[in-house]
Structures are given as C-alpha cells and as structure tokens.
Amino acid sequence: MNRTTLSLLACATALTAVTAYAAFDPPPASGDSRVKAAAELPVQRTGLLCPAPSFSDIADTSYTSFTPVTKGTDAGGKATLQAATEETPDSSGKSGKGGKKNPAAAPPLKPKAPGTPATGDTSGSDAPAFIGTADGKYAPGWTVQETTEIAAGTGSGLQGVTCTPADTDFWFPGASTAAGRTDYVHLTNPDDSAAVVDIKLYGKDGAIKSEVADGITVQPHASEPVLLSTLTDERETDLTVHVTVRSGRVGATVQAQDDAGGGDWLAASADPAGSLVLPGIPKDATDVRLVAFTPGDDDADLKIRLATPNGTITPAGNETLHVKSGMTTSADLGAVTRDQAGSLILTPSGGSVPVVAALRVVRGTGAKRETAYIPATAPVGRRATSADNSAKGTTLALTAPTATATVKVTASAGSEGGSPATKTFTIKAGTTQNVDAPVPSGLSGTYALTVESVSGGPVYGSRTLSATEEGVPGFTVQTLPSDRGLVSVPQADQDLAILQK
User: Fold this and answer.
1) Distances 226 to 184, 198, 260 between C-alpha atoms, Å
2) How far apart are CA 155 and CA 260, in angstroms?
C-alpha cells in the first residue's frame, strides 16, 4: 500500500471520528463559533407488536390504528398489520412445543391517512398476534390499540393494550402465579431469524428457580404465550417477571387474569429508576396495591406520595416502602384516591436506588369487581398518542409531579366522521387532573387523543376506558409515554483543520 493510499485512509478515519464526536458529544462554543441545536425530525419507520387478545371463545376485540399529522414527513408511505404465526397452548397449558399453529388471519383493519383513525374487529379465541410496520408519513407516532371485552369467565370485563415496539429487556412487577390467577407473558418476534428469550421470576423471597424458563425460542414472525404457572410450582401473589433476550428482539406483554376479579394487560414498567410516576388511578378505585422491585445489589427506601387535584399528600399508614434487593415487595393502599383523581409518586427517602413498580387497581366490590394495571411510565415528552377513545367512556388523567406544566390536547377526527378539536390545560405542580378532554365536533365512531407538552415541567399521563356491563365496572388503563414520533438529529459540520493536528 503506497503513501497516498495511507493518507486518504487517515483522512477518512479522521472525518468519521469528527462526525461521530459531533453526533454524541458536541464541543462547547468558543469565540464566534456556534453549537447548532439538534433538529427534531419525523421518524421514517415504525414497528409495533400486538399480542393475541384472548383464549376465550366469547371474546370480542376491537383494533384502532392512528397516526397523528406530523410536519416534515414524506408524502408517501404505508402502514400494515400482518398476522404472526402464533403458538397456542397445548392441553397441559404450556406453549410452543406441543402446541398448534393458528392459520394465517387477515388483518383486522387497513390504516387510514394520518389524522383519521381506522378501526376493525375480531371475535373468539383464534385471533392471532399481529406484527405492524409503518413508513413514510404513516410512521411518526403510529399507535395501535387493542381492546377486548369478555362477557364471562376468567378475565371477564375490559382488557386493553397499546401495541409496543420490539425490545430486548422488560420488567413486569405485578404478575402472579397465585391460585385463581392465569397470567401469560406473550412474546412476539417480528424478525426473520429466531429469538432466544430468558424469563426470570422474583417473589417475596427472591429469585425463583425454574428449569424451563431459560432459552425459550420464538420463531421468526411468530408469537409464543407462556403460562407463568408452568415455569414454577411456587404460588406467588406478587411476582416480578424479567424478560431478557439473548439473541434477536421481541415484543413482550403480560396478560394478567383473575377467575373472579376480571383482568387486564400489564405493560412493562419504565426502566429502573430512583424516582417513578404511576399516573391516573381511577377516583372510584376500591383497592390499590403497589408492587415494587429493585434489581440492583442495594435495598431501596421509597417515599410514597399521592398527587391529587389539590396537591401532593402522603397516604396515611403508607408513608414509605422498603424494597429489599432482588425481592418483590408490595403494599396495600386500599381506596387511596377517596373519590379524587390521583397519581402515585415514588421518590428515594435516602440514596437513590433504581426500582421498577406497578399498581394493581380494583373497581367495584364482591362479585362485581374488575381489575386493571398501571405500570410506572416515562413522561409524555414531546407528544403522546392514545387511540380508541369514545365521547362518554374516556378519562384522561395528567400529572405534573415537579413543576407546573402546560399541555395541548387534540382530539382527532372520528373514525366515521367528525372534525378535530383542541384544548390547552395547565397542570399545577404536584397535582393530578382528570381533564375535560376535547371531543371531535360531529363525532361518529371513535377518535384519538394527542397530548403535547407546551411549557413547564414534565407531564405524565394515562387514559382510562370504561364500559360498565350488568353492574360490573369494566375498565382498562393505558399510560401515555412519548409516541416516539420525532427523533433528535444533531447538526454536525466537517472540520478539516483536525487533519493538521
């Protein structure tokens, strides 16, 4: 190799280093130079995974697809849902080996252009998991909601889940293998190669040994429901499930169902952190149970506070929670909201130790009970999106735990007609508000809500859907983290002067 070739390679390497440095750690300004702020650009491709909705023959499931209108997107693109080749449990309750494959199913809907929801439905126990992809103008903030109504039996009531992107690490505090509970973790692989997954279970005394929870293979473009009670003989009322992916990536969600108290989907908790927010406890909740876990080597001591419409209070008798390292810890908060909107705020009372947490929320009493779950969640950020809302059955809860914030809430056009509407709200520091969300004028069908941060501190939110049938208060809660519609792209310039150093 001659000297000229070596010089060119050195130049290329230096320029690559400069570009990478600018992208991840831009230098401070000096003299007349200016550091350019990162530009927020629409994402160009989005993937979502929707779990198989139910094993009940009398389940009715609706799907809603929505992409908010985003400036700066390309004119083209599309969004599609494709059935995953799901493995159904065999007679022993185990999934995968010995199970049968569902036949390919047609997608329940065809997404509409940004700004208008599209809806579709399925029924029975044969509805598969779906793998979704969107690109171009359909990608930024694309959201798909799956809502199932089960009239009777295990998990009866309303179950809802927001379809999620694939990842490699998930925490689910709040699952259970207790008598009367039927909890599955649904694993969906969107890729062309098999994924290998490990499932770790943690109870009140620590890690639970299992000989069958490691090395679970999820075939390409397929879904595996794993019944938690087949992974261990131990019966735990409160369980933390940790899903990790050795190779590939999957979507993971827990379906938590009770023989007598309904059930819902338990979405993954936000990443382990020293402080957590669990927003939108229904004001008429009759029982609230907090489940927490710390994956590190240190115990965590947490202060428990409830953000109400009038400010932040400490629940009597539940001022703090001590979480032992590697052990699932719970606290019964009872009817903590006392007919007011509320969100739980967890902060360290000493040194900050990362934790994950979720709430099990019950409405109703006796035989007329229903259950939903609220995991700790990330803030709304730039924008969050919620699909499948109705004029009378939707409650939007927003909380600003640290500083007063202003948000803009937009109701989309209806899936069958109606014009968008917008309202702006100010959420005072330390409060939770069930806001009077806008509804499209002339609404026909369902609609989507987008929540955008305007100014002030971080805002956390959740959306509750309610549909009471025969006196049973059916409901489901979905949190509102960022819809990932925009990505920051740092501005970088080539600096050939570095080649002279």
Assistant:
1) 5, 11, 22
2) 8
